[in-house]
Amino acid sequence: MQETKTHIAWPSRLKLGAKSKKDPHIRVIGRAEDVKAARERIVAALDTKSNRVNMKIDVSYTDHSHIIGKGGLTIKKVMEDTGCHIHFPDSNRNNPTEKSNQVSIAGEVWGVEKARARVRELTPLIFCFELPILGALSLASDCYSAYIKSLQEKYNVQVMFRTRQKLNSTLVVVKGSEWEVARVKDATQLLINQMCTALTDQVLVHMMVEISPQHHSIVLGKNNENLKTIMQNTSTQIIFLDPSDPNIPSLKKSNVTITGSIHNVYKARQQLIGSLPIVLMFDVPENSVAINSVQVSDLMTKLDVLITVRHKPKQNVFSFIIKGIERNVSSIYEARRKLIAPNDPPLKVEIPSTYFIPNAGPLFKTIWNFPVYPELPSSPLMLGPIVQQTSPGENVWPSLPHLMMAAQHVPVLTSLSQPTHHRLHQHLQQQRHHLDHLGHFSYSSLSLPELPVERFG
């Protein structure tokens, strides 16, 4: 203010990267030339248009309070360290029947990646096991015994007992943090040894994870191939509840149960998390980037991601949405780099090796294999909301995937030559069988693939 001789009113709660119409504003008061100079310096410092991105990840709503911490201190520290704003859905506080797992992270790319990794590290880790009928029930009845007190202090875990009246059994729950996984597993195994004695080898460990029903199709994979591979690699049993079953309460439809040995259960949990969808969104000034549809199609094929580009003429920007899965988040960042900053060095990403599934095939390549026709002009607008009939008059609507209709994004296909129209129609018919395994997606931006086609005409 002293250098520009202006008065600047800075809002008390400025959330960088937010896209709400209620965004706070910075007010600058002074002479016209001084205000202009101050504005340029503020915009240069914030640089919200070109460098900032918004990421959406899936984190179980039951874990949100643990990640946020008492009084929000834990998540505030993460935001300070990464320079990001991390948002948890407010609707979870007031809606007892429906919960959202979606967590948004806004900031510069390097900070967003650091924040994503920290959120995963802060996720609570909970192992459960049933006490056998002949086990040490007397020990279970006294959760303040000296042994359990000592174990909780030494391994930094919380041990709880839950009586299951209908099953006439006792469930032992061991809770710790992901970043201390080795200590949590050791504590759980010691408890099993202590409380189950001779039956130790027969005790199975359970873990419950929350995966939103709209993401089940992505995590399960085509014909449940991803799930089958995880179970085979980990020798575990994984149960997904049927979201369409009216007898299952809404909140329980996201429950996924993993059963097996303690090390294999954790291994399966990690591979499921690595299969969760993840979205990166960002805007770029329209005069700073050239969009090439052939390049976009090539990136989707090579990096196994989905890319959507929309032109926003009122804001003079291109809006990018890149979708993939968490174990391949480096491919999402690489797609962004290739599209808007090919000369920048690649972002270094550290993904836990446990996220990766041995011999896992591509996820999105089998979903979209849309051809690029050289005879058609290139356009930066990849999707349009206008529904039109294709020349020579046949309606393309029946051939479009049901998820495209759900999203209300239908390709604009006009003025196609007869040969091109025929080839396009044949291709759409051939691709329909690839979409059956996706199921019906919700309107969540995390789970909604969009067909990358050009605007013709």
TrEMBL record:
SUPFAM superfamilies in UniProt: Eukaryotic type KH-domain (KH-domain type I)
GO biological process terms, semicolon-separated: regulation of gene expression
Species in which this protein is naturally found: Rhodnius prolixus
Keyword presence, Ribosomal protein: no
GO CC annotations, alphabetized: cytoplasm
SMART domains the record matches: KH
Domain K Homology: 51-124, 203-277
Alphabetic keyword roster: Repeat, RNA-binding
UniProt name for this protein: K Homology domain-containing protein
Pfam family, one: KH_1
A single GO molecular function term of this UniProt record: RNA binding
